[in-house]
Specification:
The chain has 238 residues and is an alpha/beta fold. The protein has a domain of 158 residues: TIM Barrel (Alpha-Beta Barrel). It is built from seven helices and eight strands. The chain has an eight-stranded mixed sheet, with helices on one face. Strand 6, helix 6 and strand 7 form a beta-alpha-beta unit. Helix 3 packs parallel to helix 5. It is globular. It binds iron/sulfur cluster. The site of iron/sulfur cluster has 11 residues, from loops. The site of iron/sulfur cluster (SF4) has 11 residues, from loops.
């Protein structure tokens, strides 16, 4: 069995044993951390964001035991949330996952640039997916909490300079973002390797009123994609 180091403060709410889509081109297990500093109203993981909906966290030892059984059959571990970078035990957790031979993909909202910097500089992470929620001027309004948008800007720079494969992504919620906002986001990530426009899908949401939020029409999505295509190396819509 692997040696368990200091994972104090690492709260994992859910483990998806296999995913073929979370880590591009790899078979990955997906670890969902509990807790997020943002309150995006359209969030479809409210049970990982709202503390009143938290279930008892999983035993870390059980997760490592599971990963032990998957060696050679699973390529990677995706760490998502919630917001993984607010977990005190994140880096030691990743270190141990790496020592087991897994690739690691880290999903983040970009509000903890110091953690992101350390994770990328220390070679602990192999792939980064970072949300860019809105133009900086509209960040707090979008994520519904007082925050420092400059931290997100700093994280964009860290990701782009990291030398790692990465993607930025924005959920397209018609009630929150308009054409000008997408143009401003394009300027923020100009020169990025890969940008993903994510269609808003009605499901469960942190703010259930957002179940009624309008999705952009396909023609609008095409126009936004056309407008942004020159800003980034690769643009995807999903
Ligand atoms: S969408 Fe992501 S950043 Fe926003 S509240 Fe949900 S988990 Fe947090």
């Amino acid at each position: 069995m692997p040696k368990i180091t200091d994972h104090a403060g690492m709260r994992i709410g859910y483990l998806q044993k296999t995913s073929l889509i979370e880590y591009p081109g790899k078979i990955s297990a997906v670890v969902f951390t509990q807790g997020c500093n943002f309150r995006c109203p359209y969030c479809h993981n409210p049970e990982l964001v709202d503390p009143s909906r938290f279930t008892p966290p999983l035993d870390i030892q059980d997760i490592f035991s599971f990963l032990e059984t998957r060696r050679g059959r699973c390529d990677a571990v995706t760490i998502t949330g919630g917001e993984p970078c607010m977990q005190a035990g994140l880096l030691s957790f990743i270190k141990e996952v790496k020592e087991m031979g897994y690739l690691v993909k880290l999903d983040t909202n970009g509000s903890f640039p110091e953690v992101l910097f350390e994770a990328t500089m220390s070679g602990l992470v192999d792939y980064i997916a970072m949300d860019v929620k809105a133009p900086l001027s509209r960040y707090e309004e979008t994520v519904r909490i007082t925050c420092d948008p400059a931290a997100v800007e700093e994280s964009i720079g860290i990701v782009m300079r990291s030398g790692l494969p990465y993607e930025f992504r924005t959920t397209m919620v018609k009630g929150l973002l308009n054409l000008e906002d997408f143009k401003a986001i394009g300027c923020m990530i100009k020169g990025a390797r890969h940008y993903i426009l994510q269609r808003f899908v009605v499901s469960k949401h942190l703010d259930e009123r957002f179940a009624q939020a309008g999705s952009f029409a396909e023609e609008e999505i095409s126009s936004i994609a056309d407008m942004l295509i020159g800003f980034v190396g690769r643009l995807s819509v999903r």
